[in-house]
Amino acid sequence: MASTSAPLIDAINGFAALKNVEAIASYIESNKQAEAFLGATPEDKKEIEKWLAFARKELGDTSGGFEKAKHFGKLGKLHKHLVPRVFLVSNNLTAADVAVYAALLPLVPGLDSHTQFSFAGAARWFDFIQHHPAVRSAGVPIVELDLNYPLNPKPPKKEEKPAAQAKPAAEQAAEKKPEGAAEAGKAKAPRQPKQPKGQAAAAAAGPAVPDIVRLDIRVGKITSVKKHPSADSLYLEEIDLGEEKVRQVVSGLVNFIPIEQMQDARVICLCNLKPAKMRGIESQAMVLCASNADHTQVELIKPPEGAKIGERIFFGEGYEGEPDKELNPKKKIFEGLKPDLFINADLVASYRDKEKQKELVFLTSAGPCKATSLSGGSIS
């Protein structure tokens, strides 16, 4: 191990549950992330030191597992800090993330679903860190988490006594008839309502895939850009999306982003829209951007440097599945999601799942996708 790895190892060493820290240091160093891992600025270094102290002193010896009196408040502090963030410090993995993750390793398996959900910010972060390639390189077993615990769970309904069975109408009529009257025939059973068309097939297909998962959003790189020959406000781009051929994309960004900033830019693209002609030229994807409320400012949403061209954006546990091969334009899936796509306070591209009352971020294997300055902006 090269001597330059020593500071990396020292920062995250000493946690009994985390073995093979050399593998993590090697990954960080080989991916040229050492400076950011230890703090790229004096402010980041100070924050990292604070969280290292939290891991080693405030959490202390965690080998005995979760103790409510000892650890509840500490998890609350961590949760509160992480609700709007992806990483503890800055916008990339640092020694702070690895150290606090290592300190929590003995605790998390002892948390029940309700406690995990009470500290959903910390639980979501822990799950993200344990799946990070740097941490995976150490070979630590994955801790299974239940991040789908319902908000405000309702108590089970009391078992109701079956209502007394009413006599068939024919029998009631027969009882009212005078003696000697002919016995009425049996009443016909009421006709059962028909099951809505397609409902049986939908039930057999299993749980529905969340609409956000149906989008095929991928990391790309603009390899060529020029003005549209028939429209002054449109760019015509060629984008490498990890496929055999580059895709041709038309974007209305001329009035917002200089052509020099478009060339060779790393972007994220919605790739399964139905191709459409824009002023006579087919566009085969959409470059996703952030914009302010009145759409006077627009900027590219960019993946982190370590993200691979062609990799698909994901949203974490509970949001797995394959995207639609092509979105049906009549069903307006993307249009329905747009009001809940936004840039959070940390400039991270995010999605608000109102049904599950969760806020998710656009993730790659190297971290989240971000805008440059438009906090609170929309995504389109």
TrEMBL record:
Keywords: Cytoplasm, Protein biosynthesis, RNA-binding, tRNA-binding
Location relative to the cell: Cytoplasm
Family annotation (InterPro entries): Glutathione-S-Trfase_C-like (IPR010987), Glutathione-S-Trfase_C_sf (IPR036282), NA-bd_OB-fold (IPR012340), tRNA-bd_dom (IPR002547), Tyrosine-tRNA_ligase_regulator (IPR051270)
GO CC terms in record: cytoplasm
Domain GST C-terminal: 2-156
Composition bias type Low complexity, residue spans: 163-172, 190-205
Segment forming the signal sequence: none
GO molecular function: tRNA binding
Superkingdom in the source lineage: Eukaryota
Protein's name in the database: tRNA binding domain containing protein
Source organism per UniProt: Acanthamoeba castellanii (strain ATCC 30010 / Neff)
